[in-house]
Amino acid sequence: MPTRILPAVGDPDAVRSLTTLLSQLPDAEPVAPVVDSTQLVDTLARLAAESVDELPEVVVVHERIGPVPALELIRDVALRFPAVGVILVTSDASPGLFQAAMDYGARGLVALPVNYEELASRVQAVAQWSTGVRRHLGGVVDVFTGVGGTVVTVSGAKGGVGVTLTAIQLALAAQASGRSAALVDMDLQAGDIASYLDIQFRRSVVDLATITDISPRVLANAVFRHDSGVALLLAPGEGERGEEVTDRAARQIVGALRSRYEVVVIDCGAQMSGASAAAVEMADRALLVTTPDVVSVRGAKRTVRMWDRLQIRKAEETTVVVNRHTRGTEIQPPLIQKITGTAVAATAVPANFKELHAAVDAGRVHELDGRSTVKQALWALAGELGLVNVPEGDRRGGRLRGDRGAVSFRRRRDGGG
Question: Where is 361: in which H helix or E strand?
Answer without folding.
Answer: helix 357-362
